[in-house]
Amino acid sequence: MTIEEVMVTGEWVRRGGTPAAPSKGRLRPLGLKEVTLRPGFWQQRQRISRENSLDHIEHWLTRAGWLGNFDQAAVRQGREFSDSEIYKYLEALAWANDPALEDRFQAIVARVSAAQDPDGYLNTNFGRPGQAPRYSDLEWGHELYCFGHLIQAGVARARAHGRDELVEVAIRAADHVCDVFGPGGIESVCGHAEIEPALAELYRVTGDRRYLDQARLFIERRGHQVLGDIEFGRSYFQDDVPIRDARVLRGHAVRATYLASGAVDVAVETGDEELLDAVAGQWAEAVARRTYLTGGMGSRHQDEAFGEDWMLSPDRSYSETCAGVGSIMLAWRLLLARGEARYADLIERTLFNVIAASPADDGRRFFYTNTLHQRVPGHEPPADQLVPRAASSLRAPWFAVSCCPTNLARTFAGLAGYLATADDDGLQLHQYTAASIDTGDIAVEVDTDYPADGRITVRVTRAPETPWTLTLRVPHWAGGATLDGEPVAPGYARVRRRFTAGESVTLDLAVRPRLTFPDPRIDGVRGCVAVERGPVVYCLESVDLGDVDFDTVHIDPSSPLTDRDGAVIVNGHAGATADGAWPYGGRPDGEGAAVEIPLHPYHRWARRGPSTMRVWVPATTD
Amino acid sequence: MTIEEVMVTGEWVRRGGTPAAPSKGRLRPLGLKEVTLRPGFWQQRQRISRENSLDHIEHWLTRAGWLGNFDQAAVRQGREFSDSEIYKYLEALAWANDPALEDRFQAIVARVSAAQDPDGYLNTNFGRPGQAPRYSDLEWGHELYCFGHLIQAGVARARAHGRDELVEVAIRAADHVCDVFGPGGIESVCGHAEIEPALAELYRVTGDRRYLDQARLFIERRGHQVLGDIEFGRSYFQDDVPIRDARVLRGHAVRATYLASGAVDVAVETGDEELLDAVAGQWAEAVARRTYLTGGMGSRHQDEAFGEDWMLSPDRSYSETCAGVGSIMLAWRLLLARGEARYADLIERTLFNVIAASPADDGRRFFYTNTLHQRVPGHEPPADQLVPRAASSLRAPWFAVSCCPTNLARTFAGLAGYLATADDDGLQLHQYTAASIDTGDIAVEVDTDYPADGRITVRVTRAPETPWTLTLRVPHWAGGATLDGEPVAPGYARVRRRFTAGESVTLDLAVRPRLTFPDPRIDGVRGCVAVERGPVVYCLESVDLGDVDFDTVHIDPSSPLTDRDGAVIVNGHAGATADGAWPYGGRPDGEGAAVEIPLHPYHRWARRGPSTMRVWVPATTD
Q1: Contacting residues of A for B621, CB less than 8 Å apart
Q2: Best mutation site among A529, A582, A620 for testing chain B: the one with the most B CBs within 10 Å?
Q3: Model confidence pLDDT, tens digit, residues A213-265
Q4: Do the Cβ atoms of B618 and A287 come within 8 Å?
Q5: A22 close to A204: Cβ distance less than 8 angstroms
Q6: Residues in contact with A364: Cβ distance below 8 Å, sequence separation at least 6, in sequence order
Q7: Is B34 left (phi over 0), alpha (psi -120 to 50) or beta?
């Protein structure tokens, strides 16, 4: 059965649905019932999200009044985009697809459905008595953005469960959007992209070409100054340059990655290679010049935006959690379309160093931003306190703009979907964690303690009689990797043969600590080094340094790196610098006292109380 | 005549007024009629401000409707603080004290006066039908801030001209503020400090102790969380910690420096050495750890705030022009109180590298922010276009938040007041530019081409019969300086003797290009050097580099620095780095091709069309 055939049937339901399901492309996604996470790094985080974060989210959606906004009597609370948090929560519940959550899911769907106008319009912030009229503020109103998340929730429900009330609500909403913004309608777009991938995905679910055409229309309109100018400039919402003409991702990082995701969806479905090339080129430029070592994106606090090329100062890194989600959405789509390992490389980096970094161990607090350098210890906000969005020091329970908890929840719920793909020739493994994969024809068990250890064993438990190819990604950092003892280069390592059940293939990745140097054009980290170990970025925290003056620590790059109790140890010096009245003058000298410097995984930072932290550590010049 | 005696008399009118006139302190300010700028660096800028900027400002105040807000029929336009721009413009006119401007001045005063309520309240944004009630938004409403600028304008008028209508308006406003916020009244403060120095200055003009007491009350109240919390935290408006307990300047940089200025005023007038020590300590910490090489302050765009210690990335430097004005206000008050050269050092640095950088040559465009690193060439906004505040690339004619044009205008109008002081023992010269100084007892001519040249000749043209001390500041950067051929150290060089008219003293400052290295804790400029020449910070602009890849230029710190046609030339390399797919990895190597690197004064940047620019240039490691 081809993808085209399953698209509009219940086939995806049988397979458990999947976060993005293109009808064409180099690789085919697997369903959430085809990939099962087993105990390990990611299963633990998915479990915490399922067991704790979902409750936590519903508690706050209720408490903040954002859920109550759907009930007509309520006085509206929250920001203009708060409806979207309910939809992202519904999307998370849909991917989780857990009978124990079904009543909760249906109860919210009923409230959402009841709030929908007869013509399909649905937004708690516009069009009611005393509110601004519908579509009176496309720049900031987020109406189409909210519709996008509603439709994505409907898509998730349709793929994971089948057509029901939420899917009907989503379709009515999509029809309304096409009526109002289609040919002859309002010739504009939404200030925050999201409707674009949502409509393309709804096309994939329903087969109704109208949604794809509308998504394409939104993609093509943007960039022609159809929105009003704003303080941050139109690049903020990517309305500065048509997407086919842009050089690089720019503006608000979540908007940019969502839009690019929708553009890939449209390009793939319409066979528009020019558009796909354009987005792939923008992605490559953004990764080469505008991305943090963690995979995080967004250097500017004021407009939550990509900075210019090389503007990657760690102490002002914004690296919004949701931009990490958007980056994964985009890279996943490019991976499915083109089958190139670099997309999976960035997904891995972002998963381990942004997505894993944001939630607290209990899944009830989150980083909104993911700074690479924390200069002052933070104060942990009380568990019952809503905090502003930009706090970077300690994880907070909820935010005035609280997009990351629900975005993480939907990502964790669908996480199994990003591990592997299939094509006509076999199975491809892109991310490594203990898992069982069963596509029907082929079943494998992946055994690994990754990323703590670099050995990945793939045991075939069912295989066709004919030869097929097992493809394993060798990450870009993994020089010296071997596959069944034979050297393999970064990229994709392939084993093509007839497999029999029970036999194994073993990939050994050189997971050991290494020093990483930055491109000399990244001004913010000149003269610094970072420590990485496999896909995991490490960091230095003040809680590990005792009385050592954190601001004066520097690493000796010729020092060996050693593993010790989960930390990486390296030698260096500290304490050479003292305050003067003016911090600029003659050439400084002295290197201070020798110190042993322990670094821990970045994703674990600020879990031991307030501390200062840095990913990039100054290096002794030699 | 002592300062106390002249304070409330017309003596200041005879002397032309002066921007801050403490009744006590180590040094006494001179009046604007006692110091006359002669042709040179600063007179040219003052003349452009007088001849072009004042017209430009009034044009825009009218066009934007901010002046019209004072007329009852008008529909209010502009931000909540727009009244203050009219007051700062009036202050500039008052210091200019030019009969040719008198009609214009009186016409605006009449409109302002007519808008004042009988009880002294005056704000075009509150309290009228359809507007929010008075003092209903102390955090953001800026009512007391606007009163502060109104009172400062009144103080300027009283000192430079004598008591008239504007002074009466200011006094009525001040009385109203004391009535409403005095003991038993509203126990709070304004989200933006400014009323504090204004009331203290009005006390100095009128001798009415009530204003000083009210200023003190505002100073003491703040820091006890009397304002509501906001997204940026209460440190934004310095309501986090009482001023006596704070370690360093923090939060919004303009608010911080205005508040500290008011605190110095109160401390000096009340003899509160503890308060003066506290502010002096906070200033010293801010200068040692939170100030750019240019003297600019404020590292954060989002809240226009000081960053944390060492957070001084050049590519995100905000360095608001108005924070430069506030920094000069503060350092000048500390200088008068304590007589220490370091305060004059920072004023000099800020004047040459912030105040001189902001206005265009024609005085009709301005930088709102003064970045130290511009990564992409800007687009010059049309001459008739109001732009958002944060543009850093090219000077703009007017801003939605347009505080800098009027702040510069009042600073230029009062500039002569910052050059010199007197004490019972003689005359002190703090800033060098060609000028005539005549305090009655003592008259001198200062001849110099500073900062192009380091020779300053002070010719005494009138002197008392008795010995007195001529004091000349030797800037902190000026190692190797000589006074009449004898070596003098940075700080104050003093010549005490009986002078006869016609004799001269010559100070030779070593104004030649030098390399400056940063404190190793300033992460954003690690591995970089800057070029300075005398008090002037230099920068590298892409327009001077032809085809050389700007992002890869680095300086060889062992290369000699040479002057050539107003530029400083240094040798270096460029072009070593090429793009990879991922900008982090192994140690980079190669230094590229040899290039000759010309740097120009930072204050002249972006005057030759769009360019990229950097103050800190990477250095070859050796």
Answers
A1: 527, 621
A2: A582
A3: 999 999 999 999 999 999 889 999 999 999 999 999 999 999 999 999 999 99
A4: no
A5: yes
A6: A52, A53, A56, A383, A397
A7: alpha
Residue A505's nearest CA partner among A612, A407, A576, A428 is A428
Q: What distance lies between CA A468 and its chain's CA centroid?
A: 31
Mean pLDDT of A261-279: 98
What's the pLDDT at A5?
42
pLDDT at position B607 over 50: yes
Over residues A481-499, mean pLDDT: 97
Rounded to whole angstroms, how far apart are CA atoms A550 and A553? 6
Contact A316 B311 (CB under 8 A): yes
Pairing status of strand B426-429 against strand B468-474? parallel
Distance separating alpha carbons of residues A205 and A171, to the nearest angstrom: 10
Chain B residue with minimum CA distance to A302 = B302
pLDDT given for residue B388 in this prediction: 67
Task: From chain A, pick out residues whose CB is under 8 angstroms from the CB of B307.
Answer: 315
Give the residue on B whose Cα is nearest the Cα of A289.
Answer: B583
CB contact under 8 A, B519 and A552: no
Among the partner-chain residues B311, B345, B618, the one whose CB lies closest to the CB of A526 is B618
Provide the Cα torsion A490, A492, A497, A498; round to 10°. Answer: 120
Which of A302, A373, A584 lies nearest to residue B301, judging by beta carbons?
A302
* Most confident among A418-427, B571-580, B584-593 (mean pLDDT): A418-427
**Which residue among B579, B587, B616 sits closest to A517, beta carbon to beta carbon?**
B587
Total length of chain A: 622
How far apart are the CA of B620 and the nearest CA of chain A, in angstroms?
11
Work out the minimum CA distance from B280 to partner chain A, whole angstroms. 12
Chain B residue with CA closest to A524: the answer is B524
Residues of A in contact with B291 (CB under 8 A): 583
Mean confidence (pLDDT) of chain A: 94
For residue B621, give the chain A residue with the closest CA: A621
Cβ within 8 Å of residue A405, ≥6 positions away: A53, A56, A57, A60, A366, A398
Looking at residue A404, its pLDDT comes to: 95
Out of A519, A526, A616, closest to residue B528 by CB: A526
Contacts of A55 (CB under 8 A, 6+ apart): none
Cβ of B313 within 8 Å of Cβ of A520? The answer is no
pLDDT at B68 over 50: yes
Tens digit of each residue's pLDDT (9 = 90 or more) over B224-234: 999 999 988 99
How many beta-carbon pairs under 8 angstroms link A with B?
168
Shortest CA distance from B299: residue in chain A: A316
Q: What is the pLDDT of residue B210?
A: 97
So what's the pLDDT on residue A316? Answer: 82
Distance CA B296, CA B298 (A): 7
Q: Mean pLDDT of all residues in chain B?
A: 94
For residues A261 and A192, give the distance between their C-alpha atoms in angstroms, rounded to a whole number. 13
Judging by beta carbons within 10 Å of its beta carbon (0-12, 13-18, 19+), is residue B133 exposed, middle or buried?
A: exposed
Contact criterion met (CB below 8 Å) for B618 and B554: yes
Residue A2's pLDDT band (cuts 50, 70, 90): very low
> Which DSSP string corresponds to B147-192?
HHHHHHHHHHHHHHT-S-HHHHHHHHHHHHHHHHHSTTS-----SS
Please judge whether A586 and B517 are an interchain contact, meaning their C-beta atoms are less than 8 angstroms apart.
yes
Classify residue A393 by its DSSP letter.
Answer: S
B460 token code pair:
């005494």
Q: Give the pLDDT score at B70.
A: 96
pLDDT in tens, B341-359: 999 999 999 999 999 999 9
**Residues in chain A within 8 Å Cβ distance of B525:** 523
pTM recorded for the entire structure: 0.92
Nearest chain A residue to B586, by CA: A517
